[in-house]
Q: What sequence folds into this?
């Protein structure tokens, strides 16, 4: 595992350059981790960091009416597309495949970072990411993450949070 004990240049050269700029601008360098193994799934990231999967902030992409929608949600939860459609005020909300993520959002599948969102997309943050003081999100590659404190999340993403997850039983919650 490579961690923030390496030089910033060494770590920055191994992550998405757009995300590296955001990390630098917000002073998040000490929370940057680059691994030799995959962190593409929430389970892989949690295992690499030795944290609970709930502490992983996963980014899930959808195609709305005229733009892409990215949901940042706890790694242990599933996204309720009906809730996303309502919050995004979109008639349709379709899941997109890895090829579409790479072509339209510029990230390989498993590396979608909420820290740099293209103009063609909108980010919605689920309230589940506030359950921990620190969460970990992708740094734009399939083997990197960055730690975000509660104050960093509010500074970067604003304070608005939404209920976008399915309930615990897997059934859709009533709206």
A:
């Amino acid at each position: 595992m490579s961690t923030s004990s390496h030089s910033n240049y060494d770590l920055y050269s191994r992550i998405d350059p757009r995300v590296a700029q955001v990390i630098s601008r917000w002073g998040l360098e000490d929370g940057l981790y680059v691994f030799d193994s995959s962190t593409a799934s929430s389970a892989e990231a949690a295992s690499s960091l030795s944290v609970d999967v709930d502490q992983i902030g996963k980014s899930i992409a959808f195609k709305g009416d005229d733009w892409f929608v990215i949901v940042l949600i706890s790694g242990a939860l599933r996204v309720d597309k009906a809730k996303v459609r309502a919050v995004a005020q979109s008639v349709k909300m379709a899941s997109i495949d890895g090829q579409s993520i790479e072509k339209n959002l510029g990230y390989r599948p498993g590396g979608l970072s909420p820290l740099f969102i293209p103009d063609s997309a909108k980010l919605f943050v689920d309230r589940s990411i506030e359950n921990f003081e620190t969460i970990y999100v992708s740094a734009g590659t399939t083997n990197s993450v960055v730690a975000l404190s509660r104050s960093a999340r509010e500074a970067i993403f604003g304070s608005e949070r939404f209920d976008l997850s399915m309930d615990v039983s897997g059934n859709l919650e009533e709206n």
User: Anything to note?
Assistant: The radius of gyration is 15 Å.
